[in-house]
Transcriptional regulator, LacI family
Amino acid sequence: MKKITIKDIARELNISTSTVSRALRDSYEIGAETKKRVLELAQQLDYTPDPVALSLLNSHSNDIGVIVPDIANPFFATVIAGIEDVAFAQGYHVVIYQSHDSYEREVLNVKHIFNRRKDGLLVSVAANTHDYSHFKDLHDAGFPLVFFDRICEEIDTHKVSVDDFEGAYNAAEHLIQQGCRSIAHISGPQNLLISRRRLHGYRAALMDYKIPINEDLILASDFDAEHSLLLTRRLLQGNIKIDGICASANSIAIGCHAAIVEAGLSMPQDIALIGFSDLPLAGLFNPPLSTVSQPAFEMGRSAAKLLINLIKKPEDNKMLISNVLKTSLIVRKSSLRNG
């Protein structure tokens, strides 16, 4: 005979699997009438909980899984330092996984974290992820989950990000105030919310200053210096003369910087350049790279606090929290024409 699962019950009642799971656990989040319907159908179908799944949900390892695209990226390394700062003080160990911006690797990481009985997951989504069902399944099973930086809006859980729109707006506005009028924008992958928000910030700044938006000057790059180098070369060899570039990430800005130098152009006189997410070595570039700085350490601390509270006191997490942190403009010689 086919083993009845919570998915079968959810399908029969036309409710989500997470609602069924919580009703069977007598969660305060589920109303009495819904609990009654779930329990009656579970008894009618002779539903038996999976003991392995129950043990996974009810046991504690004091380990927190963290998935980042690339631990070598200084931004994510600093976020992890913030996570560990809070986790260690609360008696948790942090286990780091890398997706290397691969969807397939991210899915495997999620399965490993669940199967190895980690208590919760902090994650920044891979650039190649378009399908979030692996996170939905985890969340529906009642597994504590918090997104940071590259967040997923489709899943109702806590999130920590920066004000990407405002940061990109301030970057574009800075170039405009330096006299730039033909400003290119090289964004990250457009499936990521951070890329779309930063592009919207760039567009809004140009519109507010009555500067026409030329779609030919808006390009999407991988978070990869080599790819952005090729795109910037194409821009510089095109028919449209540009005098400024807003790069949506500093991994992109590095390629832009190299292409401008390679072309024999000067920064900022010929082209002013600004990136996003400060690098420790940004001040050592020639010329030093202007950027939008993110509070990476505080992002890690905030995400860890939310997750640990979700693990320890699930009943206190009725209201979903979306922490949006402020960015700051770091102006250096790559963009500073006036002053």
User: Anything to note?
Assistant: Residues 296-312 form the longest helix (17 residues). The chain has a mean pLDDT of 91.
